[in-house]
Amino acid sequence: MMRRTIALLLAAGFATLASAADDAAVLDEARKVASAIPPKLVVVLGEEIAKGGPENAITVCREKAPKMAAAASAETGWAIRRVSLKNRNPKAVPDAWERAALEDFDLRAAAGEKPATLEKGEVVQDGEKKIYRYVKALPTQELCLACHGTADKVSAAVKAKLGELYPEDKAVGYGPGEIRGAITLKRAL
User: Distances in Å between the alpha carbon of 49 and those of 70, 134, 144, 158, 163?
Assistant: First the structure.
């Protein structure tokens, strides 16, 4: 009886270790996928700004960024999108899990953690399925301030275009390094 109990405990311990290793591998994969997209977007934004000013960058975030996320989703098998507590695009509203993560990121940043390091990954139950969810904070870069900065940083041309395309825009008033939103990924396990 004692040997059977010990064997069951050992098996449970090995299963826990295996599960932890699997979780770490999925977290590592999510980090790589999430880290690949923002630098590509920054390059495209910079090119559009150089061509015609910051008002050109608005179409990048509106049209090209979702296409980039869709292409990365198809390539990697992860559902990828950007979300924000102060969204510009009505499709970028976080769900409850993402909202809780973003609110936690804001608290942690206010306590001194660097926004660029803030992330969360975990297995969640969605009905009958287990899903791995990952979210990483997207700090506002200097480049972003022309469209997302304080009133003195956003030109009249940008304000006019934003007003036309996003009449319910909430995504302004940011300073450098502040959490603008997050990239979020999920995949069924």
Answer: 23, 30, 11, 11, 19
Token pair of 106 as six digits: 């804001």
Four-point Cα dihedral 58, 63, 65, 70, nearest 10: 170
* Domain boundaries, position 63: 2-188
Q: How many domains is the chain partitioned into structurally? A: 1
What is the CB-side half-sphere exposure of residue 159 using CA atoms within 13 A?
A: 9
Q: What are the pLDDT digits (tens) for 43-99? A: 988 898 899 889 988 988 899 999 999 999 999 999 999 999 999 999 999 999 999
> What are the pLDDT digits (tens) for 149-159?
999 989 999 99
Q: Are strands 179-188 and 129-139 parallel, antiparallel or unpaired?
A: antiparallel
